[in-house]
Amino acid sequence: MKTMKKGFMFSVSTALILSMVTGCSTNNDTPTASPTGEAASKSPAATASSSTEKVKITYAMWGSEAEGNKTQEAADKFNASQNRIEVKVQAIPWENYMTKLNTQAAAGQLPDTGILKEDGVIQWSSDGMLNDVSSMYEGSDSKPLDSLAYKYQGKTVAYAAANEILLLYYNKDMFDKAKVPYPPSALDKAWTWDEFVATAKKLTVDSNGKHPDEAGFKAQSIVQYGASVENLAWQLEAWALSNGGGFYSGDGTAVRIGEDASMEAIQKVADLYLKDHVAPLSVGQTDDGIQRTIIAGKVAMATNGAWNVGTSLNAAKDAGLKYGVAVLPYMKEKVTLNTGGANVVFSQTKHPKEAMEWLKWYTAEENNWGLISSGIWMPTLKKWYTDEKLTHKWVDNPNFPPYNEYKSAVVDYALSPAARPASWFYTNHTTDFNTLLGSILGDVWTGKTSAKDAISKNLEALKAANKGKK
Predict the structure, then answer these.
(1) Cβ atoms of residues 342 and 1 within 8 Å
(2) At CB < 8 A and 24+ separation, what contacts does 202-205 make?
(3) Mean residue pLDDT across the chain
(4) How far is C-alpha 82 from the chain's CA centre?
(5) For residue 58, with 0-12 CB atoms within 10 Å meaning exposed, 13-18 middle and 19 or more buried, which class applies?
(6) pLDDT reading at 27 higher than 90
(7) Which of 84, 68, 2, 5 is nearest to 431 (CA)?
(8) Picking from 36-50, 288-302, 455-469, which range would have the lowest pLDDT averaged per residue?
(9) Residue span of the signal peptide, if any (predicted)?
(10) How far is CA 103 from CA 98, 113, 336, 444, in A?
(11) How many CA atoms within 13 Å lie on the side-chain side of 243?
């Protein structure tokens, strides 16, 4: 979502509009029944007569008044589906959102529920501001994937509203022209890092048609790059984990980025530009990686998040781009990261049960079908990954690459042990840590210093950031 350089790299405003338009329209994109033949939006069971006054709850979101009205249309649909709960949407401009919530918290006037930045969930939970939502899916036929649960002190304090994982995208025309096999979509056939680099060299070409491993190659006149690995700070954690290191300990209380394995992984990413000459320079400050690489026609393969299918690649495909999806290469362990913005229940509410009922309905795939079918969001409930009928309903549409390719590289990948939660699912102060790390690594990308020297010199500051100290 429109927060920091991270998983939901699209405007929540756009997402909400798409979601609510599809949720309230009657066109063929909005299913009226689930793939199993059940009603698409199950009405919560009514336990009170229609004359009983409804429990009133407020849902906070960031966005304009118009966007809030669209979200209210979805809430009205929920309100009409049962006679016990009435949801009112409170839209707050993005630039004032967290300031407004903090003011409401201090006054004891928080809404019942709302959306919260990924990197703010653990902080708010540690301050006692969020409810335990572990019971939200009790009695349901399916729960969200385990990697999508935000946890604090062993309790689930939020579930991601959608799923996103990191993938490898590639330009099929570039591979075909070079007569190079496509990257593997199956996890058991994933490339090693060395295989990835070797392939990237075959796809990197200078103005004279030379490759990096050929005599006479000129790194200053590259016209096509073989690869790009997104080096936003939060995404770099995937490579640290893949190399046997990490940014944090398993419980998020200790910093591991100073380990040799972690620093080595980051250096390998930098060396794609500095030594291997297969990647363009990126200083890790912008989140438009797919637009700058695959869509711009300058790079043969690039890593980034699954949301790009819906936010940018659909339009590029309509314009003639032939792209594919594959699993990430790996250094020592096969790793991808999950992420997804959080819907929370604030601890000041007097109606946590009703707030959870609303969130469960609101985030159900059937009620966000426009976002799912477009490729912006991936489902959160496990059944969409394991039930073949549901998976076909999700993936068998023209917005996605071929079914078998996407299912293997995305659906199965997200369900595999390779999928791990991004650190903000369990670690506090990730904004300060990632901001500092991004600043520290600036000179690494340009070769002015090494990852080991940069991180070692600033390790105590990174540890302090992890503790919320500046």
Answers:
(1) no
(2) 202/178, 202/226, 203/174, 203/175, 203/178, 203/227, 203/278, 203/300, 203/301, 204/277, 204/278, 204/300
(3) 89
(4) 32
(5) buried
(6) no
(7) 5
(8) 36-50
(9) 1-25
(10) 9, 15, 37, 40
(11) 23
Q: 97, 316 in Cβ contact below 8 A?
A: no
Residue found by looking up tokens 């950031």 in the block: 465
pTM of the model: 0.87
Whether residue 142 contacts residue 383, with contact meaning beta carbons closer than 8 Å, is answered with yes
Gyration radius (Cα) of the chain, Å: 23
CB 193 within 8 Å of CB 199 = no
Could you give the CA distance from residue 253 to residue 468 in angstroms, rounded to a whole number?
11
**Strand-pair partners of 426:** none
DSSP secondary structure string for all residues of 258-304: TSHHHHHHHHHHHHHHHTS--S----S--S-HHIIIIITT-BSEEEE
Q: How would DSSP label each residue in 3-44?
A: SSSSS--S-HHHHHHHHHHHHH--STTS-SB-TTSSBSSPPP
φ, ψ dihedrals at 249, nearest 5°: -70, 170
Helix, strand or coil, per DSSP, at residue 421:
strand
| DSSP for residue 163 | B
Residues, the chain:
470
Q: How many Å apart are CA 440 and CA 175, to the nearest integer?
A: 35
Q: Find the helix or strand (DSSP H, E) in which 155 lies.
A: strand 155-160
Tokens of 341: 């913005």
Kindly list the structural domains of the chain, giving each domain's residue range(s) and its CATH number in brackets, ordered by start.
Answer: 12-163+340-397 (3.40.190.10), 166-338+427-466 (3.40.190.10)
Q: How far apart are CA 469 and CA 462, in angstroms?
A: 9
Tokens of residue 259, six digits: 């380990």
Euclidean distance between CA atoms 360 and 139, whole angstroms: 12
In eight-state DSSP terms, residue 210 is -
Element (H or E) spanning 372, and its range? helix 369-374
CA 235 to chain centre: 10
Which segments of 181-322 are extended strands (E)? 205-206, 222-224, 301-305
Per-residue pLDDT reduced to its tens digit, 418-441: 999 999 999 999 999 999 999 999
